[in-house]
Amino acid sequence: MGKIERKGFIALGLLSGGLDSHIAVKLMLKLGYRVIVLNFMSPFCNCTKKSDGCKSAAHMIAKECDVEIKTVFMGDEYLTMLRAPKHGYGSGMNPCVDCRILMFTQTKKVMDDLGAKFIFTGEVLSQRPMSQMRDKMLKIEKEAGLEGLIVRPLSASILPPTIPEEKGWIDRKEMLAISGRSRKPQIKIGRELGIKEEMLCSSGGCLLTDMTFAAKMKDLFSHTDTTKVKEARLLRMGRHFRINDDCKVIVGRNEAENEKLSKMAVESDTVINVINYPGPFVILSGKPENGANEIAARITARYASAPKDAEVELEFTKVGLKASTKLTVLPLPEEQIETMRI
Questions:
Q1: By CB count within 10 A, which of 16, 69, 205, 209 is most buried?
Q2: Which pTM does this prediction carry?
């Protein structure tokens, strides 16, 4: 193959903020393409940077590599897909195949708008059992309308030839042949490419693979006909207790969570505050009927900094209203609380 003229070629990449996609960006830049990257986010992104999130990690990489980055948030459309993914779930509620299809479908729109020649990712053959096996990769790109247009630089030389190869835009000999779950090849290549040691790590992954979080998501879906992004985000915080089919309680675990929960309560929620002891910020979500208020109060009392058998005074305030009511209760026994924990 003769010399490839790459000047002006836009290669559109997916940048998660993890090592694999970081390497892919470095490789494509090294080959002389004009690289633009997309960073996809969802309510379930389990970020590598706990304080700032995967958006921050991806933006740090984009800045270091001097490439343009666009953030794409998958919200309502992601939740709609998540309720009934065509290709099913993994071990938790992770719809990996459908997630990739949705991601690539949105990427295709950007590719067409930019006039990019192809898409590239940091995917590694056989690294993830649901979405990175050879047959799954090909199925995903076909259903996304991108058959043959997704280049995977880390594994491309052991994958079927792509359209960019056939058209002479990419030389197969310049691609890598990594496969499997080991991180050693990527770490070695990352060092050779000058990636800083602190960046030689995998991305954070997806909360939907976590069984505890998946249980919360299943509970939310089973008690709502439509689910809002804010409701999904709330699942990331606090202890969750299902009182009955109409309401649940979310209890802050620390000062930082209390502060976040206080900003996320909506008009349909009731806020519970402990009056006579230090206590958590608590959201009572739904319709608290048939004694639910008292149960919620007793759950809240359990997590107040009060003596085990002390009476705890609590204030209930509907969000957006000034009027409030008060209850004085004893903490609910631990064994009863556990039957309601989601």
A1: 16
A2: 0.88
Of 275, 247, 282, nearest to 261 by C-alpha is 282
pLDDT 10s digits, 15-38: 998 999 999 999 999 999 999 999
The burial class, CB within 10 Å (0-12 / 13-18 / 19+), for 48 is: buried
Domain identity same for 198 and 244: no
Report the relative pairing of strands 150-151 and 312-318 from DSSP bridges.
unpaired
* Exposure string for 286-315, b = 16+ CB within 10 A, e = fewer: bebeeebbebbbbbbbbbbebeeeeebbbe
Per the DSSP assignment, residues forming a β-bridge with 77 are none
With a cut of 70, say whether residue 52 has pLDDT above it.
Answer: no
Tokens of 130: 């649901």
At residue 1, the pLDDT reads 46
Amino acid residing at 141:
E
Cβ atoms 305, 278 nearer than 8 A: yes
Q: Whole domain around residue 106: which residue ranges?
A: 10-207
Instruction: Please give the C-alpha separations between residue 220 and each of 21, 107, 153, 305, 342, in angstroms, as whole numbers.
Output: 32, 29, 39, 29, 10
My answer on whether 187 and 263 are in the same domain is no
CB atoms within 10 A of CB 151: 25
Strand 118-120 versus strand 239-244 pairing type: unpaired
Query: In whole angstroms, how far apart are CA 324 and each of 158, 169, 270, 317?
Result: 66, 67, 10, 5
Residue 201 sits in the same domain as residue 253: no
Q: Does residue 267 belong to any structural domain of this protein? A: yes
* Portion of the chain with pLDDT greater than 90, in percent: 82
**Pairing between β-strand 282-286 and β-strand 270-274 as defined by DSSP bridges:** antiparallel
Question: Is residue 308 within 8 Å of residue 333, measured between CB atoms?
Answer: no
**Taking a C-beta distance cutoff of 8 angstroms, is the pair 163, 145 a contact?**
no
pLDDT above 80 (res 51): no
For the chain, how many structural domains are there in total?
Answer: 2
